[in-house]
Amino acid sequence: MNPILVVVVVLVVLLAAVLVVGKPKKRPQEPLPQSRPVPHQEPPKPPPPIGRGLAGLKEYLRTSGKPSMPISHRPEYSASMRAAGMHKYGKLVAKAVVFCRADGTNPVMFVVSAADKVDLGVVQNLIGPGARLATETELGPLFPDCQLGAHPPFGSFYGLQTILDERFHQESDNIIFLMGHHDGSTSMAMRGYVALARPDIRRVRQTP
Questions:
Q1: Cα(100)–Cα(134) distance, rounded to whole angstroms?
Q2: pLDDT single digits (tens) 65-116
Q3: Strand partners, 108
Q4: How far apart are the first and last CA of the chain?
Q5: Cα separations in angstroms, 25 against 15, 20, 22, 28, 29
Q6: 15 Cβ contact list (under 8 Å, min separation 6)
Q7: Are 155 and 126 in contact (CB under 8 A)?
Q8: pTM for this structure?
Q9: Domain 53-202 is found in CATH 3.40.50.2000
Q10: Strands 108-113 and 94-100, how do they pair?
Q11: Residue 81 and residue 60: Cα distance in Å, rounded?
Q12: Which of 64, 94, 155, 193 matches a 20 to 30 Å C-alpha distance to 113?
């Protein structure tokens, strides 16, 4: 064999060997990380609601830190007569009346002083045309733990929106209201009542 050819063959073999040895080994491909399933989590539970109804309201007032005073009096069935029986100004005594739509739905509580009436036009603008006073038959199921017509002006404890007349709010430092019975009322500062009842405040009383 030609010595030159032998040298060329040897060089080619050596070069091939160098290329094979110097080539980095291909690492096995690592599996792509798989997304782990997110464990199911229950949504946080809301804080326990304040007890509803008259019992819950009494406890709410007792623990609120807002001073209040019970007043015993003869059973009276109108706010004006109740004010006279307690020898109180009518502008201090609350009258909580409930209006609803013509079909009896969407009841709303309006709170005015004993000396005032609720403006039906304002009520109809808020509730809808044909709004009217709730009947005794309709009031019973709304306030099942109260004597008829003796419901307190805390509509939220009975699932009702409460609207307080702005003039009553502005002109009276105190408010006296029934607490479920016709022979007993509660007196407290108006600002304390507003802080606890959180009513909407707007003009609702009838003006001359």
A1: 6
A2: 999 999 988 888 788 788 777 878 778 899 999 999 999 999 999 999 998 9
A3: 99, 161
A4: 133
A5: 18, 10, 9, 9, 12
A6: none
A7: no
A8: 0.73
A9: no
A10: antiparallel
A11: 28
A12: 64
